[in-house]
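Appendix C reproduces, verbatim, an entry submitted by the partner laboratory led by Prof. M.T., so that reviewers can inspect both the input and the predicted structure.
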Amino acid sequence: MDSKIKQALSIFVDYFKYLSLYIFSRARIVFVIASISYEVISEVATNLKNSIVRYMFWGRGKWYRFLVVIVVALAVLVLPFSVYKTPFTIETYADEDVYSTVAQTDLLIEKGSSMTLIPEGRPRMDTEVYTVSGGDSLGSIAQKFDLSVDTILWANDLSDSDIIKPGQQLKIPPGDGVLHKVVDGDTLASIADFYGAAEQLIADVNWIDPPFELDPGQILFVPDGTMPLPDPEPVIAVASTSTGASSGNTGGTSGGGGWVPPTSANRWLAWPVSGGRGYLTQCPSAYHIAIDIADSSAPDLTAAASGTVIFAGWDPSGYAWSVQIDHGNGYTTWYAHMQAIYVSNGQYVSTGQAIGRMGATGLATGIHVHFELRKGSAWSGRISPTPYVNDSRVYVCGW
């Protein structure tokens, strides 16, 4: 065993000795080659430096010509390959997104065409005009643009009974809703109120910024708006003579007299400003189903009839600080733009009781009260209050 171990160690020592000698010999060769290369390069660099210095000294300031030659040479070599190169375009389609990139790899920016690629499926922002072709129907057109049939009917002043014909042009709104042409006196609040839409959304989709001024003749898209049904002729119940009907401050109840249009005898709403103060500034219209009463001294507002307060607080639609009173006869009144509120939800108030102070909060151009009458409970449909207000100042508004 000992002899075998000694033999193995002897072999390992010999191997390591010869390997070391081999590496040393190779390293010496590499060193010699590196030394020679360094001397050659150093000699070439020294000669080049001496030539340049000699040229600069003995060229009497003409050395710059050498630089000009170099610049011209570089320009000739580089510019033909960099001034123009047909760009290659990578287009990627992923779901609804489409984007385009142009490779820029040269020293100079490549010439190429620029364009905006609109992603597929992006909602339209403008109203389109569609020409009816053979076989079209209102239903198929609505399905084509992913709209309701009512939206197309409203936008083109059509009814269900109208027939469309090939060649006829139809306005196609960008989404479900109503197209509205602005007239004098229109505000975002009145338009939103008339169509049952969100005021801020109308401003957003039509790019209207504060102070939200509208121009007569301007066409607005009212998203999610609906065309209201014509208001029925306002009627009120009149109690029969046997029940002792009177012109008090509550609505009439059904009786032997039946339903009749309101008259001066059954105007059951009092003037909603304390002391009868204020003056009428706006009558009801198709877009403003209320009356506005103004007074720069900001007097107290009073309940037009007795009832229970069902809302007293901030209304975000533009009415701001407001109060709504349920009179228990199927009607509610609304008082908007207050600067102070004196009552709270659930409180019972009597006719003429102060409920708050006239103001100009929300979408208001001056100190006034926006006074509405709503038929039905809570947030019901608006009707003109003028046939029910027992004050001659509203007679100018008619019925």
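The chain has three domains: 2-62, 128-223, 236-397. Additional entries are available on request from the coordinating office.
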